[in-house]
Structure formats: C-alpha cells, structure tokens
Amino acid sequence: MGSELARSVLRTAAVPSYPPAANSVLDAKVAYFSMEIHIEDDIPTYSGGLGVLAGDTIRAAADLGIPLVGVTLVHRLGYVRQRLDPERGQTEEPEPWSPETRLTELDVRTRVEVRGRSVELRGFRYDVRGAKGGSVSVLLLDADLPSNDPADRQLTDRLYGGDAEYRLAQEIILGIGGVRFLRALGCASLERFHMNEGHAALLSLELLDEHVERRGASVADATDVDAVRRQCVFTTHTPVAAGHDQFPLDLALAVVGRPELGRMPAGFTHEGMLNMTYLALHLSHYVNGVAKRHGEVSQHLLGEYRIEAITNGVHVATWAAPPFLALYDRFLGGWRADNFSLRYALKIPLEEIAAAHHAAKSALLERVALVTGIHLDPAVLTLGFGRRVTAYKRPALLLSDLDRLRRIAANVGRLQIVYGGKAHPHDDEGKRLIAEITHRAADLGDAVRIVYLEDYGASTARTMVSGVDLWVNTPRPPLEASGTSGMKAAINGVPSLSVLDGWWLEGHVEGATGWAIGRDGYERGDGADDRRDADDLYGELERVIVPIFYERPDDYLTVMRNTIALTGSFFNTHRMLEQYIAHAYL
Ligand SMILES: *Cc1c(COP(=O)(O)O)cnc(C)c1O
C-alpha cells in the first residue's frame, strides 16, 4: 500500500503545473485562419484533409500551451452528407447543425461590406482542451442575424457551396471579418496571422488597412506592406496553379469593394484575376508547402517567392483508435503531452500490438456489418482506401485489373477491401469513379469482397485507418501535396502501400514502415503510368505483402510496430507545430 501511495504521489508530482495555460483568447499571439476546421467528429465544419489538419494543429497548440486562437466560419449546413445507391451513385444532402446548442455565443459583433451591403457578424467560441489542461479557442463566425438581408444571412451556411460570388463573400467574412472580430473582442497581443490556404488571404488587406489608418494616411506605402508581411504566414496546400483560389477582377472589385482594393500595391493580382495564393504570397514573410516535395514543386510553380516546407502531421490522441489509446497509456508515459514518445513503441511486445489491432479490426468489421449487412472475415488481409474521391487520387487503380486481383486472392492469399470517400458535388469525374468502384466490386463478388462505406467523415476515417491491415494510396505524382490519412493509419500500427509522393517520400522505409508503388519521379501522369503503377501495386501485394501477412505474421507485426515508432513519432502535429513556431512564428 505504502509504495502504491508513493508511486501515485510521484506520478502526480511528475505532472508539472506549467505551462501557464493559454486560456484566454485575449492572450493569443497567433491567429490561425482556416475555411474549415474539424473541431469534433459530429460538427460538420470540415470537408476533408485541410480541415482535419487545422483541427489537429489547434489540438497540438492546446497540448503544448501555445497562445493561439483559431478562426473559421460556422457552416450551419455543413459540407455535404453523402448518400450512395446502386442506381444513382452519390447524391448529397445538407448536414445542418445547431451552433447555439453546442457552443458559447460571444457578446461581440462586427461588420463587413459585401457588394456594398453591410453584413453584421457574430461569433461562437469552442474551447479545445489540451493534454496538460491548457486550452485553445476557435471562433466560428456567423452571418445568420435578423439585421442582415435574407440572402446575406446564408453566407456562412455552406462550406465550399454556392458560386464564385458566394465563395468570395465567405472569404471576406473569414479574412476581413475574422480580423475585425478579434479586434472587437479586444485581442491586442496578436503578432502572427497564419493563413491556412489562400481562402483566408483577404485578412492581409484588413491588416494593411489597419496600418494605413494608424498612420492617418489613405494609401498604403512600402512600410505598411513590410509591416503586414512581418505579421503574416501562409501555408499553401496545392501543387497545381489550377487549384488556386481566384476570382475575376471585376467580380472582386464589385464584391470586395473599391476602397480596400484601391489601397493595394502592385503585385496582388495575377493574370487579371484576384488570386488568393498570390495575394497571400505577396503579403507574407514566411510561405510553406506541406511536405518537402510539395515545397520544391511549389517553388518551381511560384517562381520569385521563397517557398519553404513543413511536413504535415496528425494529432495522435485524435486519430488513435480506443485500443491503441489504451495501449499507449499503458506503455508510453506522457505520450499525450509529447507525441515524440511514440518512438518507444519499439518496447511494446508484439502480442500487445496484435491484440490492439485485433480489437480495432473487429470494431471496423462490426461497423461494416451494421451499415452494409456484409460480414467481412476477420482472418482475411483487409485493404483500406479512404479520402476525397477525385481523379488525381486514382481510387479505382486498385481495381483496374480484376483478373489479376482474383488470381492473387485465389493463389497467394485472400483479400478484402474497404472503401470510403465523398466526391465534391460539382466533381462529376469523382462521382463517376465512385460508380466505377461499385460496379467493379459487384463484378468481383465473393472472389474479393469490397464494401464502400457511405458518408466518409472523421469517425469513419478513424475506424477505417485503424481497422484495416494495409492502407493504400495511389495519387498521380506530384499532385498529392502531403496526404495525412497514411499517418493516421501509422499511429494505429497500419502500414501503407503508397505511391511515392507527398509525405510518403519522407515516411517510407521499404519493408520497414510499409511499401512503395512505383519509383520516385515527377514527370508522369499519362495512361501508361497508370498501368505501370497498377502493375507495381499488384506485384507488391503478390510477391511481398500477402505472403508476409499469411506466412510470417510476426514479421508483419514488426512492420506494424515500426510504423508507430518511426512514422508516428515524427509525422504528428506536435513536431509540425514546433517547426511552425521555430521557422514561421518566431
Ligand atoms: C484525414 C482525412 C482526409 C485526408 O485524407 P488524405 O488521404 O490525406 O487525402 C480526408 N477526409 C477525412 C474525413 C479525413 O479524416
């Protein structure tokens, strides 16, 4: 008893009472702006990777006691709820939620001008608690007020909804409204404004206005531009120019308004468009891509601006499934406050990894049975593919040669596949790919059983990345800026079989943390490459992965343990945020 007590006292004493928790929005030094933020699984203010990254960044800040505040929109109707049926493929519905019942409303209002109309904004606050008791707040802006024109009340309803004008109005609310709202709250100690993707770029115009006004001037000069640059940090997330958010100049002038744009120095437009990437580039002192390769590709694309790289990560406590949370709590003291501790997963006995994985796999198969009525076999090697469905991710590559897949399953070892993912409502090619996967799955029948889980969101993602045996990713290089779902799989001991692009170029150690499809090289992208990559994918399964899984289970478990220790201890948002602090914020 005595030693038990001593141990518990020691445990208590070992938890320091610092850092001074950043509990107040008013103390924030960094404002982090993102059009989407995954704050909770069932709050539909996110669509995919970008919002998940934003949420994981904020959760890391809460763990580390970083004085940061998040800014986003309330998105009352969410993104889209996906329905799948054999006849019509994907259809979408809104996913309304009620911020009033989940969040605290702040007693502050501000205003922005949209197409010459004044739109009043309020804000809700959501507090993210960290591992050591600190917290970071997220502010969610809302235009649904009776004082606003009925059309303007809907401006904060739909994430990535509407036409160009609607999107631009949302960006005014996020960027300009966000800065004004922080000022109205009394945030005076903000030193850095981080734009997570170009959607938030208009915040730089508001900061510029602040400097102009402070000088009592009416036009910005070079000192104002320099001052804004010192304040701003920009993270770009797409490696193609076509992916950059941009608006025709006449629309921008009409919607954003003449006074703000009139004060802009040269360099904010690009090829006759208000290009949010160029605006953010022009007014930031630090710009980065989200993986090393993405930094290089962006540098090539964006010429005269200097582009650095900080590779993405995931927040371990958010993405580890319950059996792995319990395992880490038992074996890795302090890991919640320090994700680098995952390195010591090398000490966890293989049987313990096996037991946790078995529990996670059972949870996935139960969920599959519940929602599809299909009973997958827990003894069969299970592949997972889940992410936004769009052409460059090539979700059907895995099913491009059904005979080959049948032969592997019949002669080398059985396979089954779990798919998930939504296509953006305007992405017809993405929707066609979902239909193609469903048809090919029907062709395979019982030879290789395939299920497609409807309405892929964070909760389905967590169940999938932890419950499969192998996570597959097949982007067409160099279009995967980073990718993060393979990192989520890794912290659940699930290795990747992935094309060498994005983060996998840094995370991949052949045969130790997973397996590569194809060789490294950017200049690809035609049909022949699809065939070659598919051939490689099947070859890896046939010659390497399926035999290890069935014939040398301890070797497979060793790879699983390595993914936690090598991949998980590095590709997390604790490491990522510390790099932002060292390179971008300080
Ligand atoms: C992590 C995540 C993504 C991103 O997946 P990638 O493979 O990195 O593209 C998308 N959607 C959801 C719901 C996620 O949790």
In short, what is this structure?
The chain has 586 residues and is of the alpha/beta class.
Characterize the structure shown.
With 586 residues, the protein is α/β, with parallel strands linked by helices. The chain has two domains: 2-313 and 576-585, Rossmann fold, CATH 3.40.50; 318-569, Rossmann fold (3-Layer(aba) Sandwich), CATH 3.40.50.2000. The strands form four sheets. Strands 1, 2, 5, 6, 7, 8, 9, 10, 14 and 15 form a ten-stranded mixed beta sheet that branches. A six-stranded parallel beta sheet has the order 18-17-16-19-20-21, with helices on both faces. A three-stranded antiparallel beta sheet has the order 11-13-12. β1 (30-34), α2 and β2 form a beta-alpha-beta unit. It is globular, with a radius of gyration of 24 Å. The relative contact order is 0.11. The site of pyridoxal-5'-phosphate has 13 residues, from α2, α16 and α17.
Overall tally of domains: 2
The average pLDDT value, as a whole number, equals 93
Q: Approximately what portion of the residues adopt beta-strand conformation?
A: 15-25%
Helix proportion range: 40-55%
Reported for the largest beta sheet, the result is: 10 strands, mixed
Q: For this structure, what is the CATH homologous superfamily of the largest domain?
A: Glycogen Phosphorylase B
* CATH topology-level name of the largest domain: Rossmann fold
